[in-house]
Amino acid sequence: MDRIVLDENVAIGKEVVIEGPPLEALRFQGGRVGSILTVTDSGGKDFRGRILSLSDKKASLRIFEVFRSSTESSVEIVLLQALPEKERMELIIQKATELGASAIVPFKSKRSISLEERDAKQRKSHRWQEIAMKAVQQSRRGKVPRVETYRSFEEALELGRGEGLKLLLWEKEGEPLKKILRAHLPKKIYAMVGPEGGFTEGEVKLAKERGFIPIKLGQRILRTETAAITLVGIIQYELGDLS
Hints:
CATH superfamily of the largest domain: SPOUT methyltransferase, trefoil knot domain
Distance between the termini: 29 Å
CATH topology of the largest domain: Alpha/beta knot
Largest sheet: 8 strands, parallel
Number of domains: 2
CATH architecture of the largest domain: 3-Layer(aba) Sandwich
CATH class of the largest domain: Alpha Beta
Structural class: alpha/beta
Number of strands: 12
Strand content: 15-25%
Number of helices: 8
Radius of gyration: 19 Å
């Protein structure tokens, strides 16, 4: 559902018919007649195409551009983000998507606002996945990152039980990010960013027990949205497809 993958090789100028699961992915990405989307062929190459027609059962797409390399990074980044106030979550979703994050998980920490408090002022959480899809279209990505359901701090930690490097951004005693990344060279990273005011000592202790490594981004204190965007960008530069 998050990527349009075709079962054939395609080339510039070719018109392809899309049916079945790829059609569902096209609809999920908000495709309509005239839309331009990124698709992946059976050989793994990414192409740009324009939708010529669209019905309940199929769509036709004209291919007009091929990418020299994949539009998706080789490193999978799951951003675990403490829910910020105002419209900062929308900004984080937009920019993390543009930078290639695979998933974005909002959660409640002790010093963050709750989803109920935030939506009571201005309800926007129902649009988070749509914001990610629009950022995909703008950045020409082929994959739509998942914006997961809002959850507790403990539930967010549980997502990191599988394989991958687990990082927690902590301004007090964290290790230098570059040092940790170059020591592990992971293919999957869970990156946890706290709220304004940071994590509590108890939260850091619990995260460390779950395998998260506290890291720092220098000596300056960053706003949570700046920290999240910078963290994803640095990871992509060190291990992914930013050069």
